[in-house]
Design brief:
With 218 residues, the protein is α/β, with parallel strands linked by helices. The strands form two sheets. It has a four-stranded parallel sheet with strand order 5-2-1-6, with no helix packed on it. The longest helix has 16 residues. The radius of gyration is 17 Å and the shape is globular. The N and C termini lie close together (11 Å). About 2% of the residues have low confidence.
Length: 218
C-alpha cells in the first residue's frame, strides 16, 4: 500500500502501464481537470508499437497545441480524419495480436463518436479500458486547486513523454515483460499505451499491473 492513500493526477489518452499501476497503488484517485493545459504531454497523445517501431497517436486540438485554457476546456478538432487514421493504425499494429478481436468492438466507437472535450474522451476511454481489464478503479474529480500534501500524492505532470520518447521520472515500478506483436524482431518496449497491454495479454493485464508495483508511493 502507498504511503499516501490518495492520488492526484491528470487523465491521459489511453494511458500507459505506469499510469495504471500508479492508480492501482492508491485507495482514492482524484483527477485534476482545472489546471492549465500543458502541450507535449500524454493528455492528447499515446505511444503504440507499430511494425516500423514506436508510433505516436496524437489527438488534434482546436487552436493547436498552444492552448491558453484549462485542461477541461480543451476541445478536440475534427478538421482532419484523425479518428479513421488512428483506428487504422491500431488495426495495423494489433490486428494480429491474440486479443484484438476480443476487444476491438469496445474500442472502435471512440474512433467514430465525436467528443467535444478532450477530458470527456479520455475519461470515458479510460473507463472502458478498466472494464475490459477488470481493474477495480474508481475516481473523483478534484475540486480544490491546491491539494493538501499530507493527504494527496501529487503526480500531476510527472508521467510525461520527453524529447519524443518515454523517458519517465523515477517511479517505484519494475518492468514486467509480456509478449508483444513484434517481439520476434525487437526487444520488449515498455511504457506503451494500455492498448498494447490489453490487446497482447487480455485478461492477464491486471496481474501484470499488480506485479509492477514494488515500492512506496508518495
Amino acid at each position: 500500500m502507498s504511503a499516501s492513500t490518495a492520488l492526484l493526477i491528470e487523465p491521459h489518452y489511453a494511458p500507459n502501464c505506469d499510469f495504471l499501476a500508479l492508480l492501482l497503488s492508491h485507495q482514492e484517485i482524484y483527477f485534476s481537470l482545472n489546471d492549465p493545459f500543458c502541450k507535449a504531454t500524454y493528455r492528447n497523445r499515446c505511444h503504440i508499437a507499430a511494425a516500423n517501431g514506436l508510433q505516436v497517436l496524437s489527438i488534434p486540438l482546436e487552436g493547436g497545441r498552444n492552448q491558453r485554457c484549462r485542461y477541461c476546456d480543451v476541445r478536440i478538432s475534427y478538421d482532419s480524419p484523425w479518428q479513421k487514421q488512428q483506428w487504422q493504425a491500431l488495426r495495423s499494429a494489433y490486428g494480429s495480436s491474440p486479443f484484438f478481436m476480443h476487444y476491438d468492438t469496445r474500442i472502435q466507437p471512440f474512433y467514430e463518436k465525436r467528443f467535444t472535450f478532450l477530458t470527456d474522451f479520455n475519461i470515458e476511454l479510460l473507463n472502458t479500458l478498466c472494464q475490459a481489464m477488470k481493474l477495480p478503479l474508481r475516481w473523483q474529480l478534484w475540486q480544490n486547486e491546491t491539494p493538501a500534501a499530507a493527504v494527496l500524492a501529487d503526480y500531476r505532470n510527472r508521467i510525461v513523454p520527453r524529447d519524443g520518447s518515454d523517458n519517465l521520472p523515477q517511479l517505484p515500478l519494475q518492468t514486467i515483460t509480456y509478449p508483444q506483436v513484434f517481439s520476434y524482431k525487437r526487444p520488449f518496449e515498455p511504457h506503451l499505451s494500455s492498448y498494447d497491454l490489453l490487446f497482447n495479454v487480455g485478461n492477464r493485464a491486471a496481474d501484470i499491473l499488480q506485479k509492477m508495483q514494488t515500492g512506496n508511493w508518495g
